[in-house]
Amino acid sequence: GQNIDQPTEMTATEGAIVQINCTYQTSGFNGLFWYQQHAGEAPTFLSYNVLDGLEEKGRFSSFLSRSKGYSYLLLKELQMKDSASYLCAVRSGTDSWGKLQFGAGTQVVVTP
Amino acid sequence: SQTIHQWPATLVQPVGSPLSLECTVEGTSNPNLYWYRQAAGRGLQLLFYSVGIGQISSEVPQNLSASRPQDRQFILSSKKLLLSDSGFYLCAWNFGTEAFFGQGTRLTVV
Questions:
Q1: Closest Cα of chain B to A5: distance in Å?
Q2: B56 touching A, CB under 8 A?
Q3: DSSP 3-state of A82
Q4: Fewest beta carbons less than 10 Å away: which of A99, A112, B68, B100?
Q5: Rounded CA separation A47/B42 (Å)
Q6: Is there a contact between B99 and A50 if contact means CB atoms under 8 Å apart?
Q7: Distance CA A2, CA A24 (A)
Q8: CA distance B44 to chain A (A)
Q9: Which strand ranges, in their side-by-side order, compose the sheet holding A3-5?
Q10: Three-class SS of residue A17?
Q11: A32-70 per-position pLDDT tens digit
Q12: Residue B65, Cα to own-chain centre: how many angstroms?
């Protein structure tokens, strides 16, 4: 089985930086995803890490440490539209298809 | 480009009625397909996944079933809905490094 833990809620001001941590326990790790989900909408893909290190994509960066079972999503220059739930998901399985298991999500509230 | 279609968008059904939600994928072949449920204020729970036609794996015991009659079609069903089946149902597919979701079906069982 898998345990995926992330904080329930974080609050930050517009223009600031927020780091959302995710820890996981899994067998057959095969990648970690971050998704953004606005209320009432489907999740949208943000990033994917399978090797250790930092992946940067515009204002969003994601980091992975496989030995520690740890990832974080870094949101820079926060904007009001970044208020959403951020989901950490782990893929397991030795095949490329793998199945995705999600954490409960971190609700980020951006204040003016 | 690949797209994923899921319908209906919203559904209100009485307790004890049947359910059929359909998901289709375009622009790819042999996708891995998933059904997730998200209860209000909760995370995504994996219900079923399928790696090919007729191949279904169930993640949690429940009142629901899934079928994959064609390569790019994935169906979620129930013979008799329960109140606890209410939630936001999402179909997803992944191949390689990315995974994508349909727009979801909000099911309310009354």
A1: 11
A2: no
A3: helix
A4: A112
A5: 21
A6: no
A7: 7
A8: 6
A9: A3-5, A18-25, A70-75, A60-65, A53-57
A10: coil
A11: 999 999 988 889 989 999 999 999 999 999 999 999 999
A12: 10
3-class secondary structure per residue, chain B: CCEEEEECCEEEECCCCCEEEEEEEECCCCCEEEEEEECCCCCEEEEEEEEECCEEEECCCCCCEEEEEECCEEEEEECCCCHHHCEEEEEEEEECCEEEECCCEEEEEC
pLDDT digit of tens for each residue in chain B (110 aa)? 778 899 999 999 999 999 999 999 998 888 889 999 998 767 888 899 898 999 998 887 778 999 999 999 999 999 999 999 999 999 998 766 677 889 999 999 99
Task: Say if B13 is an interface residue toward chain A (CB within 8 Å).
Answer: no
A96, closest residue in chain B (CA to CA): B96
